Amino acid sequence: MDIAVVGTGYVGLVTGTCLAETGCRVICVDTDIKKLDLLKNGIIPIYEPGLEPLFKRAFSQKRLSFTSKLDEAASFAQIIFLALPTPPKESGAADLSRVLSVSENLAQNIKTKKIIVNKSTVPVGTTMQAQKIFKKYGSPSVVVSNPEFLREGFAVEDFMKPDRIVVGTTDSEAREILERLYQPFVRQGNPIYFMSEESAELTKYAANSFLAMKISFMNEMARMAEKCGADIDDVRLAVGADERIGRRFLFPGIGFGGSCLPKDVQAITHMGRELGTPLRLAEAILEVNKTQIEFFLQKILSHFGNNISGRKFAIWGLSFKPDTDDVREAPALKVLEFLRKHNSSFAAFDPEAFQNAKNEFPELVEMIDMYETLKGADGLIICTEWSHFRNPDFNLIKKNLKCPVVFDGRNLYRPEFMKPMGFTYYSVGRP
Ligand code: NAD
Fold first, then answer.
1. How far apart, in whole angstroms, are the C-alpha atoms of residue 196 and residue 192?
2. Residue numbers annotated as active site
3. Do 357 and 385 touch, CB atoms closer than 8 A?
């Protein structure tokens, strides 16, 4: 099948590459000329484990190509995926301008029936809104909702072997074509759920809100544990052993970030208000998340007698989670902002996300070695649980730090181990 993918970010590039892996010819469209230059030269502009071999194979065998010309891609393809950003507006609502303007552009130019598959996370009603645009221009194309559930860091794995695929359409031809397109990915029997466009759109928000709720819930429990002398790690393990609850997404920390959970919970909250069904739970998820980092930062301030002006800190981890270079809404950036506001300086290490963070904090100086960041620092702050940080050389940490204090926002170490090593150790929800 001939495919176009509009938007070559974390979702679009993975979608295009994985579809090309199954033999489809894929042309990816983007407006970012710098990104396109890299891609056209066979260079992947993002860090995503497992993407490179697939990309290189499809690219060298000419099943994957790139263009800035939407009309060229649209006339080539039978199926056109939209993987465009839907960032939050000031109000919290999802900004649909890119999805709708690309739809408008396609609708004006496509005169034969194409399947437009929207992978962007969009509020309920957007697919039908886009469909109306095609009708307005007399285009016979059909717009389908196909929310994406991949996780950055596991995007290729998730796309190749999805837990489920959700397709929102009432068009039988679109259903049949997508069923065929996705067959190679569901050979083990994982389901493709067909439903209405509205149900598909809501499924995505419901899934992300639920995941965010698990995190905020455990973060709130962690605060409680700190007050009452419990150990959140013990609580987490015992609670997660209940199959109805499950072990995953129960780790307390310094709040969730990334390009999806914060914006999607905001968007569904906004949708709820608009529809006259306020979503109290979703509002609380956001509130807990916003304050979780503040609790952590307060520990840093309190340790230094509420004055960190002139202090220097080492930061380990800048990405919003491990195995990605994505720093959108990363808690680490909030930590840097806080240090900057309090006139502290910092040196940071991240295996992949440094350059993206430096775009927002130009004062960052690249450190090749994570132990270099510690030299002359008044404390170490851990913001991302990269596996490199799990078993470090503690003696070297102590030797390099000016004061042996560690603020661990990801509970990487055991307090009973850190104390005898001579560290003052702060973590989340533990005695
Ligand atoms: P991204 O920002 O990484 O990539 C979007 C790409 O679209 C960029 O390369 C940008 O240059 C390009 N673009 C912007 N306007 C364009 C236009 N008019 N024409 C062509 N290209 C254009 O975004 P992403 O993280 O891939 O997310 C895309 C959508 O998928 C969002 O709605 C997001 O919520 C959703 N989603 C993301 C993830 C994830 O983990 N990142 C997971 C599931 C769903």
1. 13
2. 260
3. no
User: Is 0.90 topped by the overall pTM?
Assistant: yes
- Cα of 242 to ligand 1 centre, how many Å? 36
> How far apart, in Å, do the first and last CA atoms of the chain sit?
58
Is-contact 422 404, C-beta < 8 A?
yes
Say which residues have a Cβ less than 8 Å from residue 299's Cβ, sequence separation at least 6: 407, 426
Structure tokens at 256: 């969730």
Query: What is the per-residue pLDDT across 3-46, written as a single tens digit (0 to 9) for each?
Result: 999 999 999 999 999 999 999 999 999 999 999 999 999 999 99
Tell me the pLDDT tens digit for each residue of 54-69.
999 999 999 999 999 9
106, burial (CB in 10 Å: exposed 0-12, middle 13-18, buried 19+): buried
Nearest CA to ligand 1 atom 44: 148
CB 349 within 8 A of CB 388: no
Going by alpha carbons, the residue nearest to atom 34 of ligand 1 is 121
Cα(66)–Cα(195) distance, integer angstroms: 32
Identify any residues that bridge with 210 across adjacent strands, giving them in sequence order. none
Calculate the average pLDDT of the chain. Answer: 97
